[in-house]
Amino acid sequence: MVASLVAAVGILGASGMSSAAASSGSTGGSPAQSTVTSLKQLVAQARARENFLLNQVQTARKMLAQERAEVQRARAQLASLISAEYTGSPDGLLQVLTSDSLSQALDTQITLSRLTDAERGALHQVVANLQAERRNQKTLVVDQQQAVVTEKRLQAEEIVAAFEAANPPPPPRPAAQPTTSPKPSKPTSAPTPAGPAPTPTPAATPTPTVTPSSPPPSPSPSPSSGPFSINTNLTQPSGITLGQIQQFLQGTPLEADASYFMAAQATNHVSAIYLVADGVLETGWGTSQLYLQKHNLFGFQAYDANPFGDGAAFPSDQACISFVSWYVSVNYLTPPGYSVPNYPGQPGEVATGAFYNGPTPTGMNVDYASDPGWAQKIAQIGDLLQSFPG
Questions:
Q1: Burial status of residue 309 (CB atoms within 10 A of its CB: 0-12, 13-18, 19 or more)
Q2: Which of 89, 175, 346, 355 could form a disulfide with 342 if both were Cys (CB 3.0 to 4.6 A apart)?
Q3: HSE of 109 in the Cβ direction (CA atoms, 13 Å)?
């Protein structure tokens, strides 16, 4: 720039000298003074040009800084898009790259990046509202599912309430006992506690005089199909799952017994659906005093005249479920004419089929309960249990 300035001064000086000389000839002034004046003018012009160029440089530098800032923002925008894509956010890099017009998609992203703070805040609020709406929809689905479960449980509770209304507790026993007692609603044999830690054991059970020629038939290994009803074969696997029983009994004192019902089905070949339904019906969802004080889930030996006083006591829920399921299998669900080993830990053999009228709730109702609607209530509760999700 200095070299150009010197050259310009030289050129202008030469021309200035000629014009100065011409001027001096016409004005009569000193030639030296004219030359000095011309040089001062040239220097002033050169300085003005230099200032102009400096201003241009400053402007160019500002524009370069702005462009660099724009590049940085574009890089940050690209990084944000990539990050959003990797975190699974919608409208990320993948959408930009797969757009029909890549240029238009990038322009859209750049426009979004230039939104004012107020506009960006409003956009973020819209996104937050959409996310909240999705969460509300998920919560609604969960609430609807829970409502279905609650409705089914309420139906089961209505069945239990109807059973309790049809079988109210008897009045206190009078001082003078009658010579004959009403027909018991439960079998006459019962577990007898023995020792400080009693184990339920069956008392004397009628044994037929005929010796069987073949062992009792084994239940079919295939689960029963179709809805649970009064005619369901209770010796076949129910097809119910532990999760269904836990869902059905959730929040009740019987919930902890879910695995015991499944174990009894596997060991004694008695439908777990029936066992759960009978336990719910007889205990009022685990609220009866016979259950709370004696672990008696099935009203075992709870005769109509004095159900609590006569009802058998068990050391635990598990012991009750194990023994009563065995007892029901041997006496109610297996045809007569066979002798089978006694309850585990007890000597001898016992006869089968003492109260056999068919291996169904209808058959059991003949001698198991005094309520003629017992089988229907068991079937209704069992059908509700069967409909619960696993």
A1: exposed
A2: 346
A3: 25
Domain boundaries defined on the chain: 2-113, 154-167+184-209+220-390
Instruction: Report the candidate in 200, 178, 206, 203 with the shortest Cα–Cα distance to residue 189.
Output: 203
**Which residues 6+ apart lie within 8 Å of 261 measured at CB?**
245, 272, 275, 276, 279, 321
CB atoms under 10 Å from CB of 336, counted, come to: 16
The CATH T-level fold of domain 154-167+184-209+220-390 is Lysozyme (1.10.530)
pLDDT in tens, the chain (390 residues): 444 544 544 544 444 444 444 444 444 557 777 888 888 888 888 888 888 888 888 888 888 888 888 888 877 777 776 666 555 545 555 555 556 666 666 666 666 666 656 666 777 787 788 888 888 888 887 777 777 777 776 777 777 777 667 666 554 444 444 333 333 344 434 444 333 334 444 433 333 333 444 455 554 445 556 799 999 999 999 999 999 999 999 999 999 999 999 999 999 999 999 999 999 999 999 999 999 999 999 999 888 778 888 889 999 999 999 999 999 999 999 999 999 999 999 999 999 999 999 999 999 999 998 889 999 999 999 999 999 886
DSSP 8-class letter at 16: H
Is the separation of the CB atoms in 375 and 362 below 8 Å?
yes
